[in-house]
Amino acid sequence: MTKTELEAFLAVLQYGSISAAAERLFITQPAMSRRMKSMEEELGYSLFERGRGQRSVELTENGKEFVPVAERLLTLYREAEEIPRRKKSPLLRVSTVNSIAFYLMPAVLKEMMSARDTCSIEFKTGRSSDIYGYVENGSVDVALVSDLLNSRRIVPFPVFREPFVFAGGESWRETGRVTPDMLDPEEQIRLPWNPEYDIWHSRWFPPDANPSLTADKMEFLEYFLNGKKWAVIPLLVARRFKRQDVWICPMEGGPEDMTIYGFTKENRMDDQIRRFFQCVREELQMIDGIELFSGR
C-alpha cells in the first residue's frame, strides 16, 4: 500500500466524493477510482459502500475502522521520508556559579538558541567545587566559576575580570564616597562570591558580627537593599539590577577584582564551545569596567 494511495483515500473522506478528491489532487476520476480499488484488493475487503446514483461516499464498517490505521500509516511514511532531512542537534551541557547564571546566562543562552546552527542546551548551576566535579566526571561540557581550584584533569583559563562595587539602600544616596570603615556589618546583605572576597571581609569585620541576611541566592539581593542595608557585589550583578532606588558606586578599599574562569570537559574546544565563549564575550563587552581576556 503506497503513500499515494493512503493520501487519496483520506482525500476522498475529506472532500466527500471520489470526483471532488480527484479534482483536488489534480488527477482524473478513473485514476482515483483505481487507487481505491487497489487498496481494497490489497486489504481484502471493501472500504466504500457502492450504490447506483450515489454521489457522496459512505464507508463500510471495515472502512470506518481502517480510517485511523490509514492516518497512522501516512504519518509513518512522512516520518520515514524526514529521516535524511532531520538535523541531529548536538547537546551542549553548561554549568555556572549562581551569580553568572542569574545575571549573565539568560542573554548568552538566548543568543545561542537563536543561532541558525543551534545546539540543544542543558544548563545547571552549582558551587565552584561542585562544577569542577561535574566537568571531571563528564556530566558537563563547559563551565564558568569564580574559584580557582586545583585539579589534575582540568586547566582553567581566565575569561573576564570585574571589580566589586558598593550597593546600598536609599539612606546611602547622599554619601559621596564609601570605605569599609563606614559600613555596619549588621546591616549587611552578604552573599558568597569568591575566596578573595572572604579574605577581605574577615580583614574588616569581626567574625562575631552577624549580617542582616546571609543568602546563597543572588536574586534575593534586590528585595532587601532598603534603608541602611548594604552589600558589596560584582559589577555585573550591579549592572543587572532592575530597581532604580538602589544606590551603586565604586568602593574605596574594596575586595580585589573578581576573575571568572572557564574550563571544558577534557580541555577541548569544539565549535559549540567556542560559540558559547564568543556569546559570553559579546555580552560582556557592552559593559564598561569589565576586562575581557583574550579568547582561546
- Largest β sheet strand count, sense and barrel closure: 6 strands, mixed
Number of helices: 11
Give the integer mean of the pLDDT values.
Answer: 89
Instruction: Write out the strand line-up for the largest beta sheet, numbering strands in chain order.
Output: 2-1-3-10-4-11
Helices and strands, in N-to-C order? HHHHEHHEHEEEEHEHEHEEHE
Helix content: 25-40%
Task: Using the CA coordinates, give the radius of gyration.
Answer: 32 Å
**Beta strands, count:** 11
Calculate the terminal CA-CA distance, rounded to whole Å: 56 Å
- What is the general shape? elongated
pLDDT under 50 segments (min length 5)? Answer: none
Q: Structural class of the helices, strands and pairings?
A: alpha/beta
Strand content: 15-25%
How would you describe this structure to a colleague?
The protein is α/β, with parallel strands linked by helices. Helix content is 39%, strand content 17%. It contains 11 helices and 11 strands. A 6-stranded mixed sheet has the order 2-1-3-10-4-11, with helices on both faces. Strands 8-5-9 form a 3-stranded antiparallel sheet. A two-stranded parallel sheet has the order 6-7. Strand 6 (189-190), helix 8 (195-204) and strand 7 (213-214) form a beta-alpha-beta unit. Helix 1 packs across helix 4 (61-82). The chain starts with a helix and ends with a strand. 28% of the residues are buried.
